Amino acid sequence: MLSLKFSEFSLETGTDEAGRGCLAGPVTAAAVILPDNFELKLLNDSKKLNEKTRDQLRPIIEEMALCYHVTNIEPEIIDEINILNASIKAMQNCITKLTPTPEYIIVDGNRFKPVNNIPYSCIVKGDGKYLSIAAASVLAKTYRDEYMNKIHEEFPMYNWKKNKGYPTIEHREAIKKYGITKYHRKSFRLLPDQLEINFEI
């Protein structure tokens, strides 16, 4: 069973991101504050749920949450500040948009930077321990998947509808064959055997 709260504060937000290990597309974060009476049996770490369940849970989370926010950080910024900083920035952006303002933050993972002097704790595998982080993980994943499905229509040869921008063999082969797009992260090793790649599009 996932726990509702980590701290003693009533306005505690959970935050998580999706798409950190991808070669293409944004890194997407969500932050969620849940009410004290929140219960949702199916809710778990988004990686443990199938796509259908995640899609079913999203509107329920959105309706039941006290507040939530989702943010995308695009590849240009990821390339500029690196993926770890971009992930943290995405989570921070979400938190600053929440109304009411959270009194405590719980973050999935082991790295974070303070935002508006709000106390926080990093929790490794937090999306499998706390409901608000699990809810944030489902929102981040479903919003990002939706975005990748949309840009798939523009560049179907990379099959983002299926791989969501992750480094599958098929995705790497398409990069080898067609080069990269404006949605690719140029700072990532896009091909395992590359030494030098000219990224001019």
From TrEMBL:
Coiled coil: none annotated. A divalent metal cation binds at residues 16-17, 108. The keyword Protein biosynthesis does not apply. Signal peptide: none annotated. Its EC number is 3.1.26.4. Manganese or magnesium. Binds 1 divalent metal ion per monomer in the absence of substrate. May bind a second metal ion after substrate binding. Gene3D superfamilies: Ribonuclease H-like superfamily/Ribonuclease H. One of its GO terms (biological process) is DNA replication, removal of RNA primer. Residues 10-200 form the RNase H type-2 domain. GO terms for cellular component: cytoplasm; ribonuclease H2 complex. It catalyses: Endonucleolytic cleavage to 5'-phosphomonoester. It is found in: Cytoplasm. Keywords: Cytoplasm, Endonuclease, Hydrolase, Manganese, Metal-binding, Nuclease. Pfam families: RNase_HII. Its cofactor is Mg(2+); Mn(2+). InterPro entries: RNase_HII (IPR022898), RNase_HII/HIII (IPR001352), RNase_HII/HIII_dom (IPR024567), RNaseH-like_sf (IPR012337), RNaseH_sf (IPR036397). NCBIfam families: PRK00015.1-3. Endonuclease that specifically degrades the RNA of RNA-DNA hybrids. Belongs to the RNase HII family. This is Ribonuclease HII. The gene is rnhB.
